[in-house]
Amino acid sequence: MRRLAIITLTAAVAAGCGSTRHASLTTAAKPKPPPAGLRIGVVGPLAVAVPGAVAEHGTLAHVSGDALVLVDAAVAGVARVAAAANHHPATHFALVGGSTKGFHRPNLVGLVVREEQAAQLAGVVAGFVADEQGGAAARVAWVGPQERMLAAAYAGGVHRSLPTAGVLYAWSKRIPARCKEAALGAIARGAVVVTAHRGLCADAVAVAAHQQNHVALSVADFELPGVPATILVRDAVAGVYHGGEDLVFGATSGAIGVRRLDSRISMATALRARAAAQELASGLPPSG
What we know:
This protein is α/β, with parallel strands linked by helices. It has nine helices and ten strands.
């Protein structure tokens, strides 16, 4: 029995050695190489997909070593991006949706979207909503700081789609609480749609409108910053970089359109809004 036990133990040890030897011969999976292509840093909620480019999302500090860095103007201001351009002269930076006026750098470009065209389209859509909800004599409102050029473009769009509509102006400081208060005041005066420029003021206006089950619009709802960003990346993949200037993009370049709409807008009105955006992109004045 003792001899049998020794034989059994020897076999077990041998089996264990064989298992160990087998494990040592197993080749570990090699890490995949990084995708090939031009490295593009993206700061903010921009979506860019261009053949030959590899997008990397992160903070400005994290991606500043990439060949090209796209920065959403809503995330970082021009002074901060210009400072990054100073510290990384081999990297090209683009401020998407903002101007670099006063901060021109050879490796910094501004991608400016024509806000007055976006405001006009917002007005056209407001007119559609007003016609559906309040009839020919319905009222809409522009809420926020006295940006008279944008407000005038908005009113022009409203009267293009609903000539008899009334346009109210609820001026306020760019403080969210003041914007909300102004929006509620406009609604109390009969506005069925309230529209603001962008940012926290526009967010506060939307809260006020939705509390009253009304439609809220923002100029930013009709801007497509991904379009100029994509054009710039395509140029970079081809070896062409821009700097020291602002590039302006409007409706005919595809930078103005319907990005999002208030969920309270009907499907029929949403279709009219997209048709108007297509007319504007074709160089035609948006109609009803």
